[in-house]
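Researcher: For the record, we're logging two predictions in this thread. I'll number them. Prediction 1 follows.
Model: Prediction 1, sequence and structure:
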Amino acid sequence: MMLFSLLSMGMKCVEQPPVDNRLKIVNYSEKRISVSYSAIYPDTSLAENYEKYECLVLLANSTSNFEEYCSWEEVYQQSVSDTIMFFIFDNNIVKTIPWDTIRKNYMILERYDLTYEDLVKMNWTIEYPTKE
């Protein structure tokens, strides 16, 4: 259970390296979104407490960098598998609906299951919704 808690809330660095902010999130939607990640794939369930997620909130039609206090290489090394899940939530829902309801009904807008190689191929950019 402790392992689940640690891995579902973002990685903790042993040292304090510079912030790794190369991951860019692009929100093409008209909604304010919250973006978080989990390193316990293939378990796709949401954490018991929303506070366990490190989140980035983006305004509608905006772009921001996801700042991680570890390198993304270290995050992937510490993950359960070679895949990290990035969750996109409607920020309004997160702020107005109890987390246990969100969790039970899996109220996410999108989930991206990405390997390190996927992010490199995507030029460290996650787009929501995905542009075809």
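Researcher: Logged. Prediction 2.
Model: Prediction 2, sequence and structure:
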Amino acid sequence: MAGALAELLEVATGEVLASAQTLNDGAYQFDQLRPGAYQVRIDLPEGDLFAPQAAEGLDLLDARLGRTKTIRLAMGEEADVGQIPVLHGATVSGVAWEDADVNGRFDPGEPPLQGAAATLLRQEDGEWKSVGVLPVDESGGYRFDSLRPGTYSVRFTLPSGYLFTDYLPDGQGRYSKVPLVDGQVGQTEPFQLAMGQARTDLHVGGIRPGLVGDYAWIDENGNGLQDFGEPPLMGVHVALLSVLADGSVAEVASTTTDEYGLYRFTGLRPGLYRVRATLPLGYAFTANRPDIPEIASAIPEGTGPSGESEDFVLRSGQSRRNIDIGARRAGQ
């Protein structure tokens, strides 16, 4: 192996007497030496590391730096330190990003997720042991190198306030590789690393939870808009429905409007949602005004007692505070 640095040390003083770069066949040589006690220190190029068998002939100071046992030379004597097995190290890298559209894929224009950290784990004797921890850089990237063959996993810690994006295990390209878990700590599936292999696809996407709300009122003039002085409607039962990929819905949460007509659903995963409202006895849904959605009812006009909004998208970190509920007294 070419490119390693070999340094000849005098044992008594630790002084470096000479140095040489290994040739293409890994050879190096120091000659015209006086009798004495010597050691050779070997510093491997970045990305390479000593094989486990190298410990038989070297004192390993770290994965890339080793030192021979003491070599005692008499006048005219030659010494051969023997062959030192070396591995081409593997690498693991990826990117942490904020998945604004929550599709599990790193799309152009989506920002890096600064504040995330990656911990590389290696399986040894059936247990996961930490190899190292790296914060992601300003572009969201991280990289572990000089790795030995084996079984690994990457554990990600997201910044406070973030959740893991959708996991698409069969996705090709820059997809998040972390299965969905609660909280800010998640781990990739185990993977094998061969000598010199580069895994560059261990990415993670983060999303910010969203909010849906927020107001039910009595539309006294029946114009479908929230006019000044119109009172809130307490006691409306509101259910938040998640719209699944096959078109079916699942209830995520439910609540009742308070004395101020307000309701909130917080800490929500971004996605496609729908709101179902059930009015108190004696009320019907007021007219729709889709031309002014900020102050109009999101539920279609009808006698009720229940109605549903149109489906709407909740993006990463978004607050949808315009899913309002307008009601008129029955018979008006």
